[in-house]
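FAQ
Q: What does a multi-component entry look like?
A: The components come first, one per line:
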Amino acid sequence: MITIEHLTKSYRKFKALDDINLSFERGQAISLLGPNGSGKTTLIKSILGLVIPESGTIKIAGREIKTDWEYRSQIGYMPQIGRYPENMTIGQVIKMLKEIRKDCTHYDEELIELFNLPAQQNKTMRSLSGGTRQKVSACLAFLFSPDIFIMDEPTAGLDPVSSEILKEKIAKECANGKLILITSHVLSDLDEIASHVVYLQDGKLKLYNTIDELKFLTGEEKLNKVIASIMKNEPPKKLLTV
Amino acid sequence: MRTIIKYVLLDLIKNKTVLVYTFILAALSVSVLATGSNTSKGLLSLLNITLLFVPIISMLFATIYFFNSVEFIELLLAQPIKRKTMLLAEYSGVAFALSIAYLIGVGIPLCIFSYDIASLTLILSGLLLTLIFSALALVIFVLFRDKTKGIGAAIITALFFTLLFDGLLLSFIFSFSDYPIDKPLLGLISLNPVDLARILVLLKLDVAVMMGYSGALFKKFMGSATGSIYTICCMSFWVIIPLLMSAKVFKRKDL
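Then the predicted structure of the entire assembly, as tokens:
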């Protein structure tokens, strides 16, 4: 579904991404991990075409994304910080995106109902709490039932109930054969969802394995312990199956 | 594109800054036009208000608005939308909202109190200034990553065109006064949209004293009609070139 080859991006002297090679398939739920500044967001934004890579190629469904922009209709993106025009209401924001995406006629409004957004759709974006904005962002990502979901810290700022709702929704879409790409610092969140782990450090790909492989190799059961043991020791070379 | 413009406008109509801007312009125009007996004098005061306020407010407001919508632009660019379309839609929304504010604040009082060709020219020049300085704000937005630096650049640019440029022009005239500098001067004036706006209105007002050196030159060399056409053309370029430039830079910008 997504193939990344030799992706490199640097900001002045700082290398945000250094020769990344990855390939993701349908039905995978990939958790993108790494310390702050390791290039997670840059990688996500490169896939979305928001960051222009220096070299390397990204292919989505076999087509290179460089000059293309229509491929983005296959992606649902939930940003880390969702900020919207202040005086727009929730209802207007959702309506606007529907109007922009004329190509899509069938909407997946399950999450909107579950988060009970229709009840507060006349509230302006300015008056919303950070968590409610997150909910709006999540709803927008799912609205057009895309094939690929890219979520940057989806559960940060959500209350436990909403976070649970969102996770269930993600798991459901994953079971439907969609590709899911998540970054999160709350590792226990990803425990139930993720099938693969991508670990980045200083812009370099350190490992890309399935969770089961990792659990087996590190001898730990919980994802956070697995990651902790990886972070402590340099990952053994045999783990790399890129 | 139309959808984005529509929603940016919906957002801006409720924006307090735009409302206050409209209200202040309206209050100034009504007080200037309604109290004086001489409409030509009132028009001149309004011209000065326009030349001072419109560039600075348009520039600052547009810059701040663009920088505040970075995340929103990001979100929309994650949708299947061309970057150029997105940027131009965002610009059109802001420029349109500010133009409406100017039309209501200055246009309507002018049409009520002194409806003639000079007033219409003043409205036109105010609108063009709004478009020009919003376009310059767009250039600043695509060139700078940091909001604070961007706003600083916006203030400097606005002050440069409204205040500093004339000073430089004067010193240029002063130091080269022994040479025939009429023609180069004409060219230099085209580099400042605020001067162009001033000349555009003064050509219609027929107040030779107020036109200053540059205005007199314009009249002498081009006559009223050609002068007006030339200034309008130059001002249109001041809108188009920054827009093209920012679209080009934005294409390669990392968000």
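Q: Is there any commentary attached?
A: Sometimes. For this entry: The CA atoms of residues 36 and 143 of chain A lie 30 Å apart.
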